[in-house]
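Researcher: Let's walk through a ligand-bound prediction step by step. First, I give you the protein sequence. Second, the SMILES string for pyridoxal-5'-phosphate. Third, you return the three-dimensional complex as structure tokens. Ready?
Model: Ready.
Researcher: Here are steps one and two:
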Amino acid sequence: MTPEERRAELAESLAEVQDRLVKACHAADRSADEVELLAVTKTFPASDVALLSDLGLVAFAENREQEARGKVAEFAELRPQAVRRWHMVGQLQRNKARAVTRWADVVESVDSERLAEALARATANARAAGDREHPLDVLVQVSLDGTVGRGGCPPDDVPRLADKIAGTSDLRLRGVMAVAPLGGDPDVAFATLRAISERLRVDHPEAVDVSAGMSADLESAVAHGSTRVRVGTALLGGRRLTSP
Ligand SMILES: *Cc1c(COP(=O)(O)O)cnc(C)c1O
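Model: Step three, the predicted complex:
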């Protein structure tokens, strides 16, 4: 496929996703600008990120630190002037905290106090070394299926983890993130997430982000208050490499 063909393909799928979002917002009596589209570019090359950037997207996400690191650098070379924000949305080992703070603007997958501590320390070091300017924006990832296998902390642990994050000067608590359980009813999951978000905002009014909804269930997430949908397949097509 030529770059022109790929560009046309991405433009078409982007228009479709944006149309779904507009309709979902309308159905939920929400304004379309209340929901941000985050392009999940895992397994796709930096050239696709560049094309999506040309098409107007500014927020991109990856789920593996190692894959992201190179892609972020490559994209910066392809489009040095582009406005961009990189989100980490995958499970993160504490020993990758240092590496992730070099490229991520937002880490959406913070699910333990130990990981929060590691990220705070790594961000402080990166700032001291001049490798990073700003504090790291983070979301608390919540597990909605009663297991911890796919990442996320149990709902009951959210308040304590949020307090921990808010108590650091290098992390900024922005809200919550979740993945709807496989095979479960997304409406139930996203309604639960909304309740967790509302409770969180009593103590942390600044934590307004609700990152919820993917290619298959974004309408349900928007109906339940999502402020950011994370879309991979519907934008970029079937994934090329295996990715956990
Ligand atoms: C891959 C991924 C997505 C995007 O999923 P699609 O079904 O391809 O839209 C969203 N969130 C997370 C955490 C992911 O890993």
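Researcher: And what stands out?
Model: The two ends are 26 Å apart (CA to CA). The pocket of pyridoxal-5'-phosphate is lined by residues 40, 42, 63, 89-90, 179, 214-216, 230-234 (CB under 6 Å).
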